[in-house]
Amino acid sequence: MLVVMNAQATPEQIQAVEARIRELGYEPHPIPGPSRTAVGITGNAGTEGRDSLRLMPGVEDVIRVTVPYKLVSRETKQEPTVIDVNGVRIGEGGVTMIAGPCSVENEEMILETAHFLRDVGVRLMRGGAYKPRTSPYAFQGLGIEGLRLLAKAREETGVGIVTEVLDVETVDVVADMADVLQVGTRNMQNYSLLRRLSRIRKPILLKRGMAATLDEWLMAAEYLAAGGNRNVILCERGVRTFADHTRNTLDLSVIPVVKHISHLPVIADPSHGTGKADFVPAMSKAAVAAGADGLIIEVHPQPARAMSDGAQSLNFDAFRQMSDELQPIASAVNRRIN
Amino acid sequence: MLVVMNAQATPEQIQAVEARIRELGYEPHPIPGPSRTAVGITGNAGTEGRDSLRLMPGVEDVIRVTVPYKLVSRETKQEPTVIDVNGVRIGEGGVTMIAGPCSVENEEMILETAHFLRDVGVRLMRGGAYKPRTSPYAFQGLGIEGLRLLAKAREETGVGIVTEVLDVETVDVVADMADVLQVGTRNMQNYSLLRRLSRIRKPILLKRGMAATLDEWLMAAEYLAAGGNRNVILCERGVRTFADHTRNTLDLSVIPVVKHISHLPVIADPSHGTGKADFVPAMSKAAVAAGADGLIIEVHPQPARAMSDGAQSLNFDAFRQMSDELQPIASAVNRRIN
Amino acid sequence: MLVVMNAQATPEQIQAVEARIRELGYEPHPIPGPSRTAVGITGNAGTEGRDSLRLMPGVEDVIRVTVPYKLVSRETKQEPTVIDVNGVRIGEGGVTMIAGPCSVENEEMILETAHFLRDVGVRLMRGGAYKPRTSPYAFQGLGIEGLRLLAKAREETGVGIVTEVLDVETVDVVADMADVLQVGTRNMQNYSLLRRLSRIRKPILLKRGMAATLDEWLMAAEYLAAGGNRNVILCERGVRTFADHTRNTLDLSVIPVVKHISHLPVIADPSHGTGKADFVPAMSKAAVAAGADGLIIEVHPQPARAMSDGAQSLNFDAFRQMSDELQPIASAVNRRIN
Amino acid sequence: MLVVMNAQATPEQIQAVEARIRELGYEPHPIPGPSRTAVGITGNAGTEGRDSLRLMPGVEDVIRVTVPYKLVSRETKQEPTVIDVNGVRIGEGGVTMIAGPCSVENEEMILETAHFLRDVGVRLMRGGAYKPRTSPYAFQGLGIEGLRLLAKAREETGVGIVTEVLDVETVDVVADMADVLQVGTRNMQNYSLLRRLSRIRKPILLKRGMAATLDEWLMAAEYLAAGGNRNVILCERGVRTFADHTRNTLDLSVIPVVKHISHLPVIADPSHGTGKADFVPAMSKAAVAAGADGLIIEVHPQPARAMSDGAQSLNFDAFRQMSDELQPIASAVNRRIN
Questions:
Q1: Looking at chain C, which subunits does it touch, using at least 3 CB pairs closer than 8 Å as the criterion?
Q2: What digits encode the pLDDT tens for the residues C148-182?
Q3: Which helix (H) or strand (E) holds A322?
Q4: Does B63 contact C at CB distance below 8 Å?
Q5: CA torsion A221→A225→A230→A231, rounded to 10°?
Q6: Could you give the angle at which helices D280-290 and D254-261 cross, rounded to 10 degrees?
Q7: Element housing B156 (H / E)
Q8: Quick check: B319 pLDDT over 80?
Q9: What secondary structure letter does DSSP report for B81?
Q10: CB D115 within 8 Å of CB D75
Q11: Strand order in the sheet with C59-63
């Protein structure tokens, strides 16, 4: 940390800051300048004592220098983390495709989708049994019956299952069935849920909060890692901005930046990122070109009949065409779609 | 809803949209114009079928006309909701002051604060026993011991207790002790928690999500109301924007707008809204002038020693001075601080 | 500035950074820490050389410590700047009311408004002769004829005139007539215009850019001051965020923060800040309570007939009522409306 | 437009709205519903009268249905606009590369860059002679001397020149030299400048305002087209959000959406979009994969010595490597880099 004194700070105020830093167990390094003095601090981890310094007389600001995450940082572990899901290796240099409907609606549609995905080479299926919905009056998912249908789809087709877990109560039942547990954007800072999930062994797909900075997102991943579960897949799904031509603003720049500062795999969700099926293929290609380790795409046999998120779901034909178009993009960045 | 056709839409496409609207059980009202046709829809509640229409050929957009919330709307209930907490009536035309530390740290500080508050006439104390922290390595609150200390403070001083509930598991224990249960900004769309809280009788202080639109916030309140708990106090605590001179951007304009469209009381949290103690008094006055039904303020016996949020906490002297300055503001808008 | 090395930086890389700092003419202050080294820099003003350091091997980040503005900073000049406009002293502890229509539409309406304002004690009138409009097909203002009508209104009633200047070409003609020249939100970073305005003597009302940080806003004011015109009135008019219940998000917290770091007066524009006449009185009161040195309010004889911004304009009755309600708020913060 | 009445609106209020619509010269289409009535309006272009309706008793909201731009809309002109610059055809299906330094600093560096670009096949060079800088104390560009150096570089190498025009005064001198005139993000809504540029024949590169919605951006292009200059190239350069891991948030989703609703070419600026050279290649690839008609990239012989924007400039080696990597991406979307 660095304590910046204001231009009028007295020598006594600067000495008091130095004394307080020593009291906190750290080392002060005064840096006198022409218009003001700054005091560097070494020996500290995190931001403990930051507030106590900021409130001292003569202090203008306290600036954090070190990053707040440890286990998920590339400074701690240089080699990329690879996560194995039913033999699909996420983060090993391929582009992992995850696809499926927003919600599991009934047996017929989920089986039809699973068969379709297997036929086009997709090995991981998404599908919500428990749905977080803005309205209490909207369809909330089939719950345990949805999980049963997903298990049946896996049994019939061999696709691995990615499904959302909404709360601590259902962690066990979801973890029992799913191959990957998804934490949604609204739960990224649900620390009770993260702590509970840190104690299971299944991989976690951690969506970025819709207003989360990169640091906050990585801190959420740090909760999982600190509790013992380092199998975390990050997922950019669009952030909230003033822009209104898409449902969210898909922030693809976060992909190369995550790669730079963390060893965790990162995928993109262009379906939620745009909210409109027409624009999903272009943004899928962009995400792969930006270096994403995978994509999660909403696909539905009949989007116009979907019980949720129909507007952003591809139908089978559109998905097949997009898959074909993604292959050369993946090749162009020396990756294979898996 | 209103379906807007694009300029090239054919008569057949328009007829198909009308047919689909009838199939959904609603009534279509075509409105032909010089450059394009729109089709009004009546008889619908909510947005069911919206996606199915948006995906039809020739459709440019589908616009929602009616508001999505019902029970919390002023169109449903004209008179303001008044919530009684230990005899303090929130939303009845006064300005209710809630104050206290970010976290309960130990018995001494919480008792000292409770006594101070009682002495200056504040009848509701805030204080966190369970804390949502960005870092897994930061102080997470005293938990059940914190609740016990809050109960002791109430017993000694008579102040009512407002404290945060983080998850479904602790709802019972928190509800057992607290007078008002606070739902934090990160949990505003934690629907499992909201549903659980909708079944208790204690009032809920529902903070606005840091990136929540007004509609989304009211829909979160609707979850509580729809489940049976209409004792909801809304709390504006700042939203996330590009502005970096404060910790969050306190959106006071939401106060008169909430008053206009909802019957629920709404208070402001200038401590989180600004993140800096220096600016809390000015924004507290502004909130009262804007028509807030109350304030929730962080106060600490020694902010520089606080285990969390010290930089935004007032010390006792500053709080007392601010309280004095708030009185004439409250009078100016024909309210009394209670 | 502070150069933060990454955890893997070698001693040679650190030495190279120190050498480069000396080459730039500054003094390096290495601060070795347990996980990484930082190098403080003294003797620098501004951010020259920042990029050259950031690009060196082993450098993680370069952090600016000093503020970039000088003349408008309270560190440079402690006493508040007071601006005299036709005898109205802005920034001297009063609340200066500026009111009037969005656009000058015709002689009748502008004279009617000027007489009304004089009668209710408002001494400065706003009114646009040159209008920045989002659409090229919308009414663009009466131009020079509008200025003539404003001059006539001043002659008849004695109100001072605040009007917008859009470009360098019209600076002379606007400056010749106006008492205060307004720079709109879209022109806050129109540096050619700012430089030209820095060379006139009339006061400038500088609106905050709709996505401007506080630093950027003060830097725009610094352009004016650096060129010789220190008569700058800052005006918060709402910023652009995701929130959609108001036209912009009025960021009142900027008022006490500006007061803290600058000596310039700052006023608020609740008309553009909310975009809806219904919410202007509440936010006007809030702005005064927050410490604003004034308000700029849209008033129109017949808002429903206004050629621009009718939805956010108060009619005369509403304005008169609001003025009455503002008096006790101003008193409560020890100010008088002038 | 659609007028939404509130639930308590009386029949008289609805009739008054219908009467007002007829008075405005339009046709009302009442749509009675179970909870409220809406009134569709046909025959209107733009939003004239919108405010007058919104302010009527019983009116809840007025919703715009038609888009506000005409000439730049794909509904008006289906085939894409192709812009020829020195034989480089922008928008015809290729990926046009524009590269060069932020500022022209001296003859040596600009000639060196021009020769380099020609050698690697880039035919359009960017370079600023007039620079908009946040600080009045920062380097403001070489001005007319910079233009002269750019002309010399073109003469020696044949590269076309893209350079920024800051104000009306310098339009003639810049237009005289440049092949494409760039309007920067801070000037996107400088309507005086747009109107002046609409009367020249040279193509305009119109950067998106940093807080501009898509509609506002297209309306700025409409200013140019309405005045007579339809040679507009749109350029996404990142928008302002809360995210702090990049300088701006590059909103690539705007590319396919622009393609959908406008016939104008659209390019991307990953240098300003990210602010960090390390992330430019990944975002350049993403932009091409998303369907961009071109890229504008900052390149400098010695980024660490650049007088502006060094941190986001590629050196020659990095640019050459990125160009090589872009070829297969362009091929994958059936485009050629030109």
A1: A, B, D
A2: 999 999 999 999 999 999 999 999 999 999 999 99
A3: helix A316-332
A4: no
A5: -40
A6: 30
A7: helix B144-157
A8: yes
A9: P
A10: no
A11: C27-32, C37-42, C2-5, C59-63
Q: Which of D89, D79, D95, D91 is nearest to D332 (CA)?
A: D95
The pairing of beta strand D160-164 with beta strand D124-126: parallel
Q: Is B318 helix (H, G, I), strand (E, B) or coil?
A: helix
pTM: 0.94
Q: SS in 3 state form for D137-202?
A: CCCCCCCHHHHHHHHHHHHHHCCEEEEECCCHHHHHHHHHHCCEEEECHHHCCCHHHHHHHCCCCC
Q: Which residue has the tokens 């509640």?
A: B45
Q: What dihedral angle (degrees, nearest 10) is formed by the CA atoms of C272, C273, C279, C284?
A: -100
**How far apart (Å, rounded) are the C-alpha atoms in residues B270 and B274?**
6
Please, are residues D266 and D258 in contact by the beta-carbon 8 Å criterion?
yes
Tell me which residue in C8, C34, C40 faces A43 most closely, judged by beta carbons: C34
Q: Find, among C299, C255, C261, C257, the residue nearest to C277 by Cα.
A: C299
Q: Which of D256, D279, D285 sits opposite A253 (nearest CB)?
A: D279
Determine the length of chain C.
338
Residue that has been written with the tokens 């898959």 in this structure:
A323
Identify the DSSP state of B166.
-
In angstroms, the CA C34 to CA A66 distance is 11
Neighbours of B326 (CB within 10 A): 23
Instruction: Return d(Cα A243, Cα A257) in angstroms, integer.
Output: 22
CB < 8 Å from B in window 18-37 of D: 29, 31-36
CB of B86 within 8 Å of any CB in chain D?
Answer: no
Q: H/E element holding B204?
A: strand B204-207
Contact C245 B279 (CB under 8 A): no
Q: Has residue B47 got a pLDDT over 70?
A: no
Counted residue by residue, chain D has a size of 338
**Backbone φ and ψ of C18, nearest 5°:** -60, -40
Domains of chain A (ranges plus CATH)? 2-63 (3.30.70.1140), 83-337 (3.20.20.70)
Report d(CA C321, CA C310) in Å as an integer.
18
Closest Cα in chain D, distance from residue B15 (Å): 18
Rounded Cα distance between D177 and D173, Å, is 7
Structure tokens that stand for D312 in this block:
């986001």
Report, in angstroms and rounded to the nearest whole number, the Rg of chain C calculated over CA atoms: 23
Report how far residue B127's alpha carbon sits from residue B106's, in angstroms, rounded to the nearest whole number.
11
Lowest mean pLDDT of A107-111, A309-313, D268-272, name the range: A309-313
